[in-house]
Amino acid sequence: MADITVGLVMPATNTTLEPELRAWFPCPIRKIAVLGAMTSARTPLMPEVANWFGIVAPAKTPESVVAKLSSALDAALASAELQSTFRARGVDLITHSPTGFVRFISDELARWSGTVANAKIDLN
Q1: Is residue 102 within 8 Å of 66, Cβ to Cβ?
Q2: What's the burial of 34, exposed, middle or buried (CB within 10 Å: 0-12/13-18/19+)?
Q3: pLDDT value, residue 1
Q4: Segments making up each domain of the chain, as ranges
Q5: Distance CA 120, CA 106 (A)
């Protein structure tokens, strides 16, 4: 928080919160990247930093349970109301099948594990 307050680090957010950030933190805000897979119309020259989140189940969860949860989530995420809410906040929804999400996570781990090891990043 101290680094944010003195302007060394900006909290990760999308550009829709910029007015609130300026009110909360009177220091100058220096943007370094846009979170997301594509640049925002408000920040067309900023580099992108892709981000994602997902829902996972405990190991050994029966496939039938995973399939039922996945189906319910897909239906919710397909609703016009939820799509509109996310879009208004600058979030693009992309869904994966359970198998596709496992593959995505594996690819991300492979992609970043060397960087994390070389930088000696520790979870503590």
Answers
A1: no
A2: buried
A3: 46
A4: 2-49, 63-118
A5: 20
